[in-house]
Specification:
single chain, 247 residues, alpha/beta, two-stranded antiparallel ribbon, 7 helices, globular
Length: 247
């Protein structure tokens, strides 16, 4: 799979793109069919914007089209669920910008049946997108409250191929290793050794690296069949920090 490195100037990581306005949930509460229709229309527009920004993998686009993003944001923010920017989900955490979710999913380059480790469950949105690609997702969240709510949400939405664990992602998930793919959705100051050790030879990892106060770069880590690692910078990003110690 070829990787196109994005320019900071051509595609800013936090560019907010407008989508069709969604009425406030209270305004549509009496007409569930209209609500579902408007969310579907907004989701289609979101995917069209993502596709226009060079995410071209058909499976990734289908997954973004399938997952109801409004189910993964707080109720009072559902009218903004399909705009192309991050949203707060509590505890100082965010649900990532849709474009970044799609870009990272495309770069991860999964095949059905793979085992994928995700560090940073949040609300479970990235987990659901990966689950739509018919992989087994094992996801770790450092905030117990977020892990609990994400687990319930994913179960309610029938994402049975996702397993949520409350834990510190720096240590990975040793008793489930090795993993075909690893995706990290918080910015680390360094690439945690446990994650590269638990990556299967021939596997790949996508991780943002850098300070919350400085430049962060999205890094692709490739592990060859002999276990040697090489890295490739992809684009500048801004993520919440990867924390240590259970919360």
């Amino acid at each position: 799979m070829s990787i196109r490195i994005r320019s900071r100037h051509l595609i800013p990581a936090l560019l907010a793109c407008a989508v069709q306005a969604i009425p406030h949930p209270a305004a549509l509460a009496q007409d569930p069919d209209a609500t579902d229709r408007r969310f579907r229309e907004a989701r289609e527009q979101m995917v069209a914007l993502i596709e226009a920004r060079d995410v071209t993998d058909s499976a990734t686009l289908a997954a973004m089209r399938a997952v109801p993003r409004h189910e993964f944001v707080p109720a009072d923010l559902r009218d903004r669920a399909y705009a192309d920017h991050p949203l707060p989900i509590g505890y100082g955490q965010t649900i990532s910008q849709p474009y970044i979710v799609a870009f990272m999913t495309e770069v991860l380059d999964v095949d059905p049946g793979m085992k994928v480790l995700e560090v940073g469950t949040g609300s479970g949105y990235q987990s659901a997108v990966l689950a739509e690609l018919d992989v087994d997702v094992l996801t770790i969240e450092i905030f117990e409250a977020l892990a609990t709510s994400a687990r319930a949400r994913l179960r309610r939405l029938a994402y049975d191929n996702v397993t949520v664990r409350h834990g510190d992602g720096h240590h990975g998930w040793e008793n489930e290793a090795p993993f075909d793919r690893v995706i990290v959705t918080a910015a680390a100051g360094y690439i945690p050794p446990a994650l590269t050790e638990q990556l299967r030879p021939g596997g790949r990892m996508v991780i943002p690296v850098g300070s919350v106060y400085g430049v962060q770069n999205l890094i692709l880590v490739l592990k060859d069949e002999e276990g040697a690692l090489r890295t490739q910078g992809l684009l500048p990003v801004r993520f919440v920090p990867m924390l240590e110690g259970l919360r």
